[in-house]
Amino acid sequence: MTPNRSSSPDRRARIEQMRRAELARERRTRVLTLTLSAAVVAGLVGFGAYVLDEESQEKQQQEAAARAPIADEKSWDAKKLGRDHVTQTVAYPMKPPVGGDHHQVWMDCDGAVYEEPVPEVNAVHSLEHGAVWVTYNDKAPKDAVEALEKKVARTPYTMMSPVADQAGAIMLSAWGKQVTVDGADDPRVNQFLARYVQGPQTPEPGAACTGGMNGTAKR
Q: pTM for this one?
């Protein structure tokens, strides 16, 4: 049979049409892929910028809190607080003490929560190392004590213990600094921690808060 020659150009035209359609489809796919990739990258960049901005704002807020005056905070002249190592009991002029002569061994203060009272002469040495000491008496609400225990347990250079004869129900002490707070959610708690954990008042910044005396600690 003689081939139908007229069909050959039609066939080539259909093939060319199909090829152009395939190329067009591939171009659309590439454009879509690039568009989606750009959107994903832009989203990731935007999310990263948002996270960084949130972290920056949080850091600024913490720094602002650390600089703001702490209401009803008491201060003692750090230069007048003795720093000698002694073996005898020391009669401190404030309760709990915020500095003075102390024992050569410090209390472990790396987020330590003590169930029983700790020796003042050892606790003061911890303050010298830049620790904040959270104390409470039997007037402190149980839920406030539990909330503060959790906060102290996750905060380096802090410790917590009961002090039965202190004036306030809940008190925070650092070297030469002290404040009485109303509860665990009192904003002065975070202010005090932000400012005085290894803060500028520390006589021996960078000194250890572990490897000392470890009393009856929950954590």
A: 0.72
